[in-house]
């Protein structure tokens, strides 16, 4: 038959299905090649476990199970000896092995499901003539570093992802991997670091460390090398311990510090830890403590022999702050054009103005004239005092702007336990809580635990201040009182203690020396 198209007759072409005959050997070769590629990829992903497993199998085949037991016993003995001889290298190897174990057992097993359900995987549609399929792309773990308390995963971002997306899913990831806390730290580009904290290292109180044992010249403040070290240490005063086990230090020289926390959160622990850390410099005459305690001296009067000036009433505090402003202005005029940062000396020490409960001076003073003087002096010190060496260390319970209007002038801030969810952002800056600073979740049983954020530091760090009890305060006062003028320092006015001087010529402060 034929069909008519216009005036022409076209022959009908019978339709035949297109069939391509593929030889069986080509199908087998394709399957074998695909299996080989997948096998090589799997071996590369487990490039440590595969050789180790093969080595164990060969060893068992050659020496049997008794030989394997002997090998394990020998490895244990070598590890014990290695740890005693060189603990630093052994610790590095142990952390590396533990990290590989955690990566295999915990993270790789749940990684793909976690990425899909948190929308951190990317699905790309592909289509042919018949149907649409999706290819899934997952962020890849590039490195892991583990300790007993925290696992740090270095993850490569997929195209189009931002660290903020990961930060929003931090709580979900915490639950997936059964961690206590998850923090997301962004690198400069392309990578994020996931910190999974699975053990709280700050549960036990922190014992204050030795301040003089490792310093050149020991406890002798006249030693030249020791004086240089003391000045350098003013940029890193020991306070306590960080969550990763490293020492927690705070800069005092060239900055101002704000400590915020609810009642019983441990603000006194932080203040006393800093005062204790400044003790060697106070004894050497390189630091003067000008202390304001609006509570009538209930918190800081224990350390009065350490202080160059001590004020408890609002009138005395206003005079102290006015004098600090005057010193600051004189130094500024003298150092202008010569240096940009004051260097403490015995004759020209760093002045640290300590204010406990600064809100009592900014919001709760009833005398208008005194409140006006304080309101004028504090902003001047905070805005101009860092370079000439007059710095402010303040504590506050309520960090709201109407209570502390110039809190943004403190470059270094510590947020202890808070009562409201938004107070961590008020102290540490916007977004601090989303980056892990959940200060309202700190339990009452952990005073001194908080988060610190220094100037230029991208992420808040969880810390705990050392526990300074009355005995340690007494020992600090007796050990680090300023030396006499003949020794290159100064001596506080002890006339107030004249009536209390014992007949045997003992300690006039009444503190006594604590071994």
From TrEMBL:
GO MF terms held by the record: ATP binding; DNA binding
GO BP terms, alphabetized: cell division
TM spans (from-to): 63-82
Annotated signal peptide: none
Keywords: ATP-binding, Cell cycle, Cell division, Membrane, Nucleotide-binding, Transmembrane, Transmembrane helix
Binding site for ATP: 261-268
Entry-linked Pfam families: FtsK_SpoIIIE (PF01580)
Domain FtsK residues, every copy: 245-425
Protein name: Cell division protein FtsK
Organism of origin: Parafrankia colletiae
């Amino acid at each position: 038959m034929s069909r008519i198209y216009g005036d022409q007759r076209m022959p009908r072409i019978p339709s035949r299905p297109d069939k391509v005959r593929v030889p069986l050997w080509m199908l087998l070769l394709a399957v074998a090649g695909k299996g080989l590629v997948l096998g090589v990829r799997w071996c590369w992903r487990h490039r440590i476990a595969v050789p180790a497993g093969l080595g164990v199998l060969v060893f068992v085949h050659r020496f049997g199970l008794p030989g394997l037991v002997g090998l394990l016993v020998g490895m244990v003995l070598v590890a014990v000896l290695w740890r005693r001889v060189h603990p630093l290298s052994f610790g590095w190897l142990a952390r590396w092995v533990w990290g590989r174990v955690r990566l295999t057992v915990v993270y790789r097993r749940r990684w793909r499901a976690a990425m899909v359900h948190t929308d951190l995987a990317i699905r790309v549609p592909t289509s042919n003539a018949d149907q649409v399929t999706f290819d899934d792309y997952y962020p890849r773990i590039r490195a892991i570093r583990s300790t007993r308390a925290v696992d740090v995963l270095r993850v490569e971002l997929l195209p189009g992802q931002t660290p903020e997306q990961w930060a929003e899913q931090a709580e979900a990831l915490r639950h997936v991997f059964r961690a206590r806390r998850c923090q997301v730290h962004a690198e400069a580009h392309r990578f994020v670091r996931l910190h999974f904290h699975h053990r709280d290292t700050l549960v036990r109180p922190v014992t204050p460390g030795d301040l003089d044992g490792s310093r050149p010249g020991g406890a002798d403040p006249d030693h030249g090398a020791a004086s240089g070290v003391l000045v350098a240490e003013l940029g890193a005063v020991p306070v306590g311990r960080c969550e990763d086990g490293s020492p927690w230090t705070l800069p005092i020289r060239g900055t101002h510090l704000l400590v915020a926390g609810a009642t019983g959160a441990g603000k006194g622990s932080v203040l006393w830890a800093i005062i204790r850390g400044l003790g060697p410099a106070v004894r050497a005459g390189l630091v003067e403590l000008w202390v304001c305690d609006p509570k009538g001296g209930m918190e800081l009067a224990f350390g009065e022999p350490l202080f160059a000036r001590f004020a408890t009433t609002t009138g005395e505090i206003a005079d102290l702050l006015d004098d600090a402003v005057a010193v600051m202005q004189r130094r500024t005029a003298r150092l202008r054009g010569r240096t940009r940062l004051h260097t403490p000396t015995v004759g020209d020490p760093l002045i640290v103005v300590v204010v406990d409960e600064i809100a009592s001076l900014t919001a709760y003073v009833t005398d208008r004239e005194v409140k006006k003087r304080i309101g004028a002096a504090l902003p001047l010190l905070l805005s101009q005092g860092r370079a000439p060496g007059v710095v402010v260390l303040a504590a506050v319970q309520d960090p709201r702007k109407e209570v502390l209007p110039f809190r943004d002038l403190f470059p270094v801030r510590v947020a202890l336990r808070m009562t409201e969810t938004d107070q961590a952002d008020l102290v540490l800056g916007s977004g601090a809580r989303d980056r892990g600073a959940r200060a309202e979740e700190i339990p009452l049983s952990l005073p001194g635990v908080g988060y610190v954020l220094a100037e230029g530091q991208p992420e808040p760090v969880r810390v705990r201040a050392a526990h300074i009890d009355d005995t340690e305060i007494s020992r600090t006062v007796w050990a680090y009182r300023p030396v006499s003028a003949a020794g290159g320092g100064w001596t506080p006015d002890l006339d107030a203690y004249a009536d209390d001087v014992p007949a045997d010529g003992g300690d006039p402060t009444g503190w006594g020396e604590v071994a």
